[in-house]
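Data availability (excerpt). All sequences and predicted token strings are deposited with the supplementary files. A representative entry, FSD2 protein, is shown inline so that the format can be inspected without opening the archive.
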Amino acid sequence: RLEEFLKKEVDLELSTVPDFEERVIDVSEVEQLMNSINAIPAPCAPVINPQAPNAATGTSLRVCWGLFSDDTVECYQLCYQPVSNERHSDGQAEHTLKVKETYCTITDLLPNTQYEFWVSALNASGISPPSERAVYVTAPSPPTIKNKKIRSCENAALVCWESRDINPVDSYTVEL
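Structure token line:
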């Protein structure tokens, strides 16, 4: 029976012709509604944290900040410059970094130097106002021991050193 069936010619044409109407659907209202739902506002200003203990070396600083709102943020723009006591601080170089996290370690800084930091948040809608400015300071460079002035006896030693820092150092720790 299979052999007979395979010998038969089979007509695979559809007996009915589908009749489709041309319809134009206006989706402009839906599109406008979807765009309004997907629109996110520009973020609020971040809050920069004060300098944390042990967040500095002689040439680097770790700066942290946060948000008080549930804003959508794609990245942050961290700006900094050295603090200058001069009235004409326009000559101070302002640096800007793009950062994904809410912290950043800045390197290649000068020892025992104050730096002013501020941060803004960015998303597809725009940039936030800048945070308040915070002043961080790098650690002092190690002092230079004056080898020719070292004196010692059985119960005492005299060690002299000098600081290579421009700004005054609060204190020194001597370890034996």
